[in-house]
Every structure is written in structure tokens, then in C-alpha cells.
Amino acid sequence: MLLALHAPDGFLSAPVAFATAFISVVIVGAALRQSGRELKDKQVPLAGIAAAFIFAAQMFNFPVASGTTGHLLGGALAAILLGPATGALVVTIVVVVQALLFADGGLSALGYNVLNMAIVTSFGGYAVFLLARKLMPRNAGGIVGAAGLAAAASVVLSAMAFSVEWLFGATAPIDFDNVFTAMVGVHLLIGVGEGLISALAIGAVLASRPDLVYGVRDLKRSTFADRTPVPMRTFVAGGILAAVVMATVVSQFAVDSPDGLETVAEDTGFADQATDHALDSSIFADYATTGVANESVSLAIAGFSGGAISLAVGYGLFLTMGPRRRSESRETATV
Amino acid sequence: MHSTANSLTVTDLSFAYPNGHEVLDGLSLSVHSGERVALLGPNGAGKTTFALHLNGVLELQRGSINVNDIPLNEENLGEIRRRVGMVFQNADDQLFMPSVREDVAFGPANLGLDKAQQAERVAEALAAVDASDFAERTPHHLSGGEKRRVAIATVLAMHPDLLVLDEPTSGLDPAGRRELTNLLKSLPLTQLIITHDLPLALELCPRSVIISGGRVVADGPTEELLSDTQLLAQHRLELPYGFSPVVAGPAT
Amino acid sequence: MAGAHRHLLLHTDSPLHRIAPEAKIVGTFLFAVGVALTPRRAVWAFAIDAVVVLSLLAIAGYRPRQALTRFAAVLPFVAFAVFIPFIAGGDKTDLFGLSLSTEGLWASWNVIAKSVLGTGASLILAGTTPISEVVRGLGRLRMPPIVVSIVAFMFRYLDLIVEEMGRMRVAMTARGHDPRWLWQAKPIASAAGAMFVRSYERGERVHSAMLARGFSGTMPQMEHEPASPTDWARSLTPPVVSISLALVALIIL
User: Fold this and answer.
1) d(Cα A45, Cα C197) in Å, to the nearest integer?
2) Looking at chain C from residue 143 to 182, which residues have their Cβ under 8 Å from any Cβ of chain A?
3) Interval A37-56 mean pLDDT
4) CA B56, B58, B62: angle at the middle one, nearest 5?
5) Is A209 a residue whose pLDDT tops 50?
6) How many whole angstroms separate alpha carbon C216 and alpha carbon A101?
7) Residue C4: which H helix or E strand, with range?
8) Is C3 a member of any domain?
9) Is the complex ipTM more than 0.85?
10) Chain A: residue nearest C119 by CA?
């Protein structure tokens, strides 16, 4: 669990640290501008207190199994409650302050820590939330379920992001395949916890102050009156089952009997292209690729992960930044 | 000491929350300059909602509010907020800056005073509440009584004409309560003290107003109101066991 | 609750306490960057960096034991590094009767050395700079006002929220709640949701209190002595050392 979160100094190579820092600065800068537009003066203290809440939530242990405990990441939760831009900003602040004053995660690792823990979880999680909401019933139960899925997916996306970064900036001879399998496998399980806790937390907020949930601003208040509680065991069992199934699928990709993805990759011509620029290309870290069993498959997985993350984060960014601009231009038009 | 000028005049104030719940229902009240008045009432009587109107935190729906002959409206909002010093019920909500000094300087800075004037206001306000020693401390690390005093300093620094205190003694121990009453007695300001601490009202305020159901139901000398057991019972107000307003004596 | 997040300030006075916060923040950050850039095999460079960190910890007024406890608090974050030599591939080295990956050992050393030095740097900053100073320092560094305000509010209300969560946890335990499995976590999760609502409502009350004192949308800039050239010179010395060492090591290795 500590792998993707709060990565220490020296975990990924310096170029990747710089590259991720650059990407993070650009995206957080955009989130900041968006947030500045969204946050009326009223919401600055609210955002600050939400930051304290996320900070505290990360210290708040919940039981996982037989007395072992985990804690919340809170990126998706923050995004659903505050909107992805403010959510990303708030979690970024938490991550940076933790590194600066509490040595939780390296200062030189902030680039990838912010990217993985704040940006991918907030924007990616929010995108999944909106997509999941479309598939779920339009009532409180559906929203709570969508929130749970989004929070679980955000953790997995975060782990995938770390694996892709490892491909470019590995500092030890551990193959991408192994890192990917381990990271995603472990985080699927962690995601169940994150999803569950986030879902219940959103449920509790919806029950008392639905007006505080950014992610349901488009819905009428009466929508939340219809609450059909989901039994905890069903919820957990379903979550674990889904995680196990996904973990199996993922590990299938990573062992040397490539099926699904390779076929896809070959069909689309991606595999050829991928092998052309090949693993010997210097942009990939030597360490991550030394023992790669099947180059095209690894690249396909990496490409798929990178694509999934970019799509989710990009969709999240678009959802936040896009519609707002339109309404702004409308405002200027009326002036 | 009482001048005839009205410090605060509230006329026919009504307010309902968006869900339709009516909290204030035609409340009228005036407070003379230099007076110290207790506003008494049970939980849910509309006391805090009323207080939030006095410096325009809640928007005026019906009725009018005048502070030293300036009406509360959009245009005068800034001036009204300077004139009416609100001390909130929970000092932790009021002290939000990283240090006591910055917190007390927050109001003067919003008034547009320069750094030297701000420092002067801070020093003077902290001295008035005997809190000069903890200027550099974090509000979080103050005791309940200290927080309350600093919260009062934060509004004194704005040189208000009227001090409004919402439940100033809640959560204080007897010594803290004693220090606070002494402090309030020493401040030469018009004061409106919202409380259900009846002995406090008797000690500090010659005049009390009881509000219930969003309107004024009684207005008179504190000692008289507190001696009217039937009136108190009607509005869910109770004196502490064994307390007699006659024996304790009226405010001086 | 995690003790690691307790306030780390040393209540003493030292030359480091008196340096302007913005200079210290920049110095800390650049020092860590310099360390991160150092090639892993330049053990001597890390040794000199370590001397710098240890001297500054001593000047800051850390007692050895105090410093060790605080270093220990970050152990979980580097725990993974210990496993690298066991799972990494490549040439093997025999160490204490174990066959370990040579490159893995170097990778492990790399993470541990850099993290320990980086942690030391952040302990020096945290030990000598009150939170309110950190917030002011961020303001002086031209961080966007929204960010500075969010950080300020975050710190102001963090302890309150943590204490409140602690009380809720105690209240649950007092009524026999002792969760061992994830599906027993519902009360905690609901408590977290309730906590958010409470925090948010507190935010609304704080905003009222701000309006009542004339807040008009921008936080006033508080007066603050800017960092002097001496402060900058002092704060930038450690990063100059770590970055120079990194460069020398990159050239000669």
C-alpha cells in the first residue's frame, strides 16, 4: 500500500521526477485557476477545512482484515465533495505539506506523488464517478455506489500511473510486468477499502447535507430521499469478487501467455509500432525492461494503462474546465 | 450615562430559512447608546439568527435595522460591520488565523488601515482584554477563557459602537466566567448580550429582553423579569437552583 | 491517531529558528533536490551531505534521541526499499548468507540514503519553523493567495478535526465497537462522513465570522520582515553543498 503513496526520495529516476513535476505543476496550475473561479470567497475557508479533513482522514485508520488497518487516500472523495479542480488542489496541498513538514514522502518525489495521489485520483476518480453514475439508478443508492466505484478505481489508476512511471524511471532491476502486477494487484484490494469508506462517507453527507456534494449538484434534493441501503457484506463481497476477477485478468496479461491485450494490440497494429520503437529505445528505463518476457505485451499494457489514465484524467479535466468556460462566455455576452 | 440616542433600532424584522421555517416574526427592539441589554430566550427562539442579522451576515428579508442612524443596506454594509462587533458563540469559529496577533489584525486590515495603525489597534485591543502576553500564540493552544477574551479583542480592534455577544459564558469554568464578566463590565461600550445564563444577565444588564417564537415577548428591568416565575416558565427559562434575583441584587 | 503528525516544532531558540521561513523552505527543498540528483554510487557525497544534516540537526537543538524517534516515524515509507534486493533481478551478491541482487542492493541504498537525508532536511525545517511562519513564508514566496489561505485554514483546523475524530473513536470504543474486518467499518466510515459535514458547517460559521469583521474576499497581507541576504546565504548553503556534490559526482563517476 505504501508503494504508490508517499513514495520516498530516489524511488524513480531524476528525469521522471522532473517530468512528473512539470506535468503536475501544469495541471495543478490549471486546477488552481479553475478553483479560483469556482471558489467564491466563502469557499476558501471551506476548502481549507476540507484540506484539514482530508489530512485527518489519512490519519484515520479503518480495519481491513483481522485487525490490520489501512487509511484513506481521499482523492476521489475530495473530488466528489468539492469538485475535481478544488479536490485536486486540496489533496495536492496536503501531499506537499506532508512532504515538507512531516517527511511523509520525499520532497524530490513530489512530482510523481502529486501526480499519482492528487491529480490522477481526483480527475480520474471524478471521471469514473460521472460515468458510473450514468450506469446506476438515479437515487441515493446509485450515487453512493458510483462514489464507491470511483474511489476504488482512483486507487487502481494511481497504481497504474506509478507502474507506467516505473517503466520510464525504474531505479532497480525489477521488470515493468512484475511492478505492474504487484502494484495493481495490491491496489485492487486497497481499492475495495477506499471505495467502501468513500461510499459510506458520501452516503453520510448525502443523508444530512446533500447540498454540500459537488458531484450531485445537477440532481434534485428529492432524488436522495429514496434510500435503499445496501447490506455491508454484499457490498464488501461484491467488491472483493470484482477485485479478484480483475486481478486475475491483470496477472494474465503480465505472465508470458499473452491473450486479450496482445490480440487487441496486434489487431490494431499497435504491437508492431510498439516493437518498432522497441524497448531498447532510451526513453524506457533499462531496469524496468531487462527481464521483460514479451515486449509487445508489456508495451501494450503500459500503453493501455497510460491511455486509460490520460483518458480518465483528461475527461475529468475537460468536465471541469469545459462547461465552465461556456457559461463564462455567456456571462460576458450578456454584459 | 444613558444618552437618549439609539445605538440600535430594529423594526419589524422577519426571517424564514429557505425550507420555509420561520425563525423571526416581526421582531422590534431598540437599544440606547451606552446601555447593556441582555437578550434572553430558550433554544430555538431565534437569538442567533437575530444576531447574524445585526451586521448583515444574513440578508435582510423584511423589516429594517439601524445602527447609530445608519440603515443596514448593501451600500452601508462595510460601515455597519465595523460598527457592530459580533462575538460568536464558538470562539474556535472566530479565531481562524495562525496566530492571535494576526487574528486581531484581520479586522483592522480589512478596514484598510496601514501596518502601523494595525499594530496599534492590536496592542490596544489585546491590552483591553488583558491578553497582550499571548499575541504570538496559536489560538488552538489557548484555554477556553483566553479564547473568549481574544475573540472579544478581535472585534474591539475594529472600534465598534455596539458589541454583540452570543452566549459569551458557554463552556467557561467559574473563574473564566468571572474574568469575562469583569471584562464586560469594564468595557465602555453599548452591549447586547445574548444568553440563557440568567444570573449573568442580572449581574451585567439592568435591562433584559425576552424573545420567544421569533418576537419580543417581554422587555423590562432584569430583576423584574427574573422575578416573574410564570413568565420564565412560559418561555422555557429557568434560574439555577436556589438562586434568587432579589437576594443577588440588580446590575450596577 | 498517528503520532507522526504531531506538531514537530522544537520549543527552543537557535540561529536556525531566527532565519526567515521563506529562505528555509527554499533551502530545504533545493537541498533535497541536490541529494536526489546525486548518483547512488557516490557514497562519499552522501557522507558529506549527512554531515551537513547532522550538524544542522544539532544546531537546531535536536537531542540525538529526539531526532531518532522522529526519523523512526518515517520508517514505513522506506520499508519497501528493504525488499528490493530480494525481488530484483540481475547479478547476485552473497550477503549474510543470502543471495541478493547487486543492483537491487544499490537501489535499496539509493532510496534509503536519499530518504534519510531528505527526512533530515524536513525535520530541520519543521523543528525550527512554527506553522504560522511556514504559512507566511509561503505567502512571501508568491504562492497564489488561495493556496496560502487554504494552507492557513488547514493548519488552524487540523488539530480540532483530529481531536474530534479521536473523541468519536473513543465514544465508539466505549460502547464496545472493536472492528477487525472491513465490513465492520461502517460506523467509522459514517463517522468520517459526519465529520466532513461538521467540518464544512464549521467552515460556514468561520466564513460568517470573517464577514462580520469586514472580510471582502481577499485575505489581508500580514506584515512580515522579508528574508535578509544573510538569511538567504545561510539557507542556501546546504543546497549549494548538495548540488555541488551531485555535480562533481556526476562528472567524475
Assistant:
1) 14
2) 144, 146-147, 149-158, 160-162, 165, 179-182
3) 79
4) 90
5) yes
6) 31
7) none
8) no
9) yes
10) A103
Classify residue C100: in a domain, yes or no.
yes
Residues C172 and C236 in one domain: no
Instruction: Return the top range by mean pLDDT from A59-68, A159-168, A224-233.
Output: A159-168
Structural domain of A327 = 14-334
Q: Are residues C205 and C243 in the same domain?
A: no
Same domain membership, residue C113 and residue C70: yes
The answer to whether the CB atoms of C122 and A102 lie below 8 A apart is yes
In a domain, C220, yes or no: no
At residue C69, what are phi and psi to the nearest 5 degrees? -60, -40
User: Which CATH number belongs to the domain containing residue A163 in this structure?
Assistant: 1.10.1760.20
Residues C96 and C115 in one domain: yes
- Mean pLDDT of the region A233-243: 62
Q: Which ranges of C93-228 would DSSP assign to H, the alpha helix?
A: 102-128, 131-140, 145-174, 186-212
Domain presence at residue A5: no
Let me know whether C132 and C230 are in one domain.
yes
- List b or e across C109-142, with b for residues whose CB sees 16 or more CB atoms inside 10 angstroms: bbbbbbbbbbbbbbbbbbbbbbbbbbbbbbbbee
| Cα–Cα dist C138/C149, whole Å | 10
Number of H helices, E strands in chain B: 11, 10
Residue A1 lies in a domain: no
Asked if C212 and B111 come within 8 Å (Cβ–Cβ), the reply is no
| C22 and C87 assigned to the same domain | yes
In a domain, A63, yes or no: yes
- Tell me the C-alpha distance between B78 and C148, whole Å: 25
Alpha carbons within 13 A on the beta-carbon side of B182: 10
Domain count, chain C: 2
How many domains is chain A built from? 1
B86 phi and psi angles, rounded to 5 deg? -95, 125
Tell me the range of A315-329, B176-190, C82-96 where mean pLDDT is highest.
B176-190
Q: From chain B, which residues contact C within 8 Å (Cβ)?
A: 52, 55-57, 78, 81-82, 84, 86, 88, 90, 92-94, 96-99, 102, 105-107, 109-111, 115, 118-119, 138-140, 154-155, 158
Q: Please give the residue range of the domain that contains residue C244.
A: 9-136+226-252
- Would you say A148 and A193 are in contact if contact means Cβ atoms under 8 Å apart? no
Query: Which strand (E) or helix (H) includes residue A221?
Result: none
Choose between C139 and B153: higher pLDDT: B153
Q: How many CB atoms lie within 10 A of CB C89?
A: 16
Q: Which three cell numbers stand for residue A262?
A: 496482445
Q: Are residues C68 and C94 in the same domain?
A: yes
Pick the closest to residue C1 from C122, C168, C131, C120 (CA basis): C168
Q: Please tell me the predicted confidence (pLDDT) of residue A40.
A: 66
Whether C180 and A63 lie within 8 Å, measured CB to CB: yes
Instruction: For residue B224, count CB atoms less than 10 angstroms from its CB and return exposed for 0-12, middle for 13-18, buried for 19 or more.
Output: middle
Q: Any idea where the domains of chain B sit in the sequence?
A: 6-90+162-248
Partner-chain contact A52 C189, CB within 8 Å: no
Distances (CA, A) of A327 to A34, A37, A321, B43: 13, 12, 11, 43
pLDDT tens per residue, range C58-80: 998 888 888 888 888 777 767 77
Residue C202 lies in a domain: yes
**Best CATH choice for the domain B6-90+162-248 from the list 3.40.50.300, 3.30.230.70, 3.40.30.10, 3.40.50.2300:** 3.40.50.300
